[in-house]
Amino acid sequence: MGYNKEFEDIRPYNDSEVKQVIARLVKDPGLYEVLKFVHPQWGDDDVRNAVSEVETIADFQKKVAHPGMRILIDRTVDNLSFSGLENIKKDESYLFISNHRDIILDSAILNIVLFESDHGTIQTAIGSNLLSSAIVTDLTKLNKNFVVKRNTGAREFYENSMLLSAYIRHTIDEAKHSIWIAQREGRTKDGLDKTQPGLLKMLTISCEKAMRECFRELRVTPVAISYEHDPCDVLKIPELKAISRDEKYEKQPLEDFNSIITGLTGQKGRVHISIGKTIDKELDILAEFPNINDKLRMLGEFIDSQIYQNYKLWPTNYMAFDILEGTVLDKPEYEGADPEAFNNEVKERLSAAGLHSDEDYERLLGMYANPVRNHLTVSES
């Protein structure tokens, strides 16, 4: 896959660079730590043998990335299910816009589903703030990750947005490769998934056509992922509290790293990923709105509506909703789960994390209840 030099700083590696990168990685002790974390029975020779067979990006994904992620999923997920494959074609490229729960797993699970269904793999956006070391950069770029530059000044922000927009459009429309991108910067920590208009605006700045045609070319396809249990739920509460008080939240050292490890290793119960329908005919409605902000708002509503409708609701979602609403019943949606036991578990997990206030309790329940509220907005309309 060829890319213009303007994309050099953000693009994934290509096949011609693989041997050089692998040669660099086998000299890095971090590689052995990463692969032994996934394969604890391996020794150094096993690691070297595994990566020595890698000559292309496809090799890396087939022999290293996919088996490793599949092992982690099998350890921590009771059942991985999916729906919506009939909505996409193997010979088409798409811009998958997804709700965002876990730093790594959201896109990784979509990749597993697509790979194991013979739909190929996607390129994935990753924030530059997560590229904490040379080995992380090498491994992510070998796995088709492209870089979204974070924490820049206003002028750099616009230039980076223009570059990113052009890169996404080039990759989908010319290179014919699908891309995953989150519907907002950072994870949705309160469960109220909503597409940021700024993200959609970024996608338009590299296109001079009418907005509806710009998005039609990208084949925007909403994706909803839901976890029965979020291993990082209690870790998200301090930031939610700061935001609610209009305070600037300062992340602790290694906070993102700890969230990544917790997300990868924590038990998640059941997980479902749903691929929606490509937004196409709906785009014609955008012509009725003269204001660009109204167009972006309407497009965001198209995306959100599918995510809310397709989001798989688990007993944890229904029980949290009913506890907060004061309507706890023995519903079929509980699937035999006990709301009282669930409520006690929530309180115990909060206490173990040093979170004891009513606000902490309500925010944790809200993470699970809000997808039900989202779903009700589309089922009642």
TrEMBL record:
Every Phospholipid/glycerol acyltransferase domain range: 81-158
Coiled-coil spans in chain: none
Stored InterPro entries: Plipid/glycerol_acylTrfase
Domain of life according to the entry: Bacteria
Molecular functions (GO terms): acyltransferase activity
GO biological process: D-galacturonate catabolic process; D-glucuronate catabolic process
Name of the protein in its database record: Phospholipid/glycerol acyltransferase domain-containing protein
